[in-house]
Amino acid sequence: MTATLLKEAGGPPPVTQPDGRRRARRRGRIIAVAFVFPALLLLGALVVYPVLFSVGRSFFDASGTRFVGGANYSEMFHDPATIRAVRNTAIWVVVAPTLLTGLGLVLAVLVERVRWATAFKLLLFMPMAVSFLAAGIIFRLAYDEDPDKGVLNAAAVSVHDAFTGTSTYPTARPRNGQGLTEEADGSYRTTATASPGRTVDLGLVGVLPQDLPQNARPAHPAAQRTAAPDELRGVVYLDFTRGGGGRQGQVDRKESGLPAMTVQVAQDGRTIASTTTAPDGSFRFQDLGSGSYTLQLPASNFAPPYDGISWLGPALVTPAIIGAYLWIWTGFAMVLIGAGLAALPRDALEAARMDGANEWQIFQRITVPLLAPVLTVVFVTLVINVMKVFDLIYIIAPGPVQEDATVLATQMWLVSFGGGNNQGLGSALGVLLLLLVIPAMVFNVRRFRGSQR
Length: 453
Fold this sequence. Notes:
453 residues; 5-stranded antiparallel beta sheet; 3-stranded mixed beta sheet; transport; 8 strands; MetI-like fold; 9% strand
């Protein structure tokens, strides 16, 4: 009966909300806008406006007064420096995130088996607290070519000298006209031949007295010894008397021998024997047959010392800076992947162990597939970060190789403010960098939204 009456009357009357409820909702919206407005204002001033201004500025010339259309974008892809920056950016995007994600995964898995896991994580994460400026200064010193300053080259020189040895007298040389002539390979030989039973004095200069080995002894007593009939002996000495005086080409009483100097004896162009000088610089060759012989000082005696690796040279500057970046961000990747690892279902891992799988199989077939979403987020986040890397490259790379290490971010600054003074081309580079970053950002946002669902 009631339904029939309502039907005849055209349905139930509309339900009207009280005015108080509408006013409360309107007030809530106003309050929400009031709270959000400062954030929107800052977002517009710090992000939206600079982006729109850069896009517009990229269509004008260096002075900003003449519209040039797409000329800046065309010039950007014809400039060798920009092409080099794009190439280096591609190297960074491929190498750095891949290595960081791999290192973070390995360390996160290994840390679970370390007793002091928390302390280990803290130690690896500490570089994140260091600013890029400080990290750049640290690694600029670590990569210094001088082994007395750069720790890496100090280690390289120590290892090299331990296996290969080093020359004691890299600056030594004979006086002109004192019986030694230089060969093409840097060695020295006597201009006159000598027969067994003679003593030959080989004087050198160019060695500072304070650079002599500690076991060096005066050469004068050794020069006075008489050679046996079947031996050829002599002394290699520093032909320099401290305080002045002395005679050139003769061993004076105050002149020091040069120990550990390699001396060879040759006949008819063929080396017969080799020996090393004693602390007083003396040497001797015994059981020599009759004939004439030539004495030689091999080039190894005068080889320059090994100075290490040119870490910041054109060939290695980009890998060296990537190494500094890895030092900073490895802890970040390890902590994020470790958090994902802690959330893995342990029953799946235990079931695999019960089925007889070893740890490598568990890692390869179970751990990595289950961690794929976390690894993807870490990788994409690092890709976004390396596209914007600027501080490390600007600080670590020396001026002469700055162009060899440049990426899009540094090239944008160099073109705009670092001497180029072309904000039009710099804005075009900024727009290119933005276009490259946006797809990675969109992908990351979608991944985050998907994980929240």
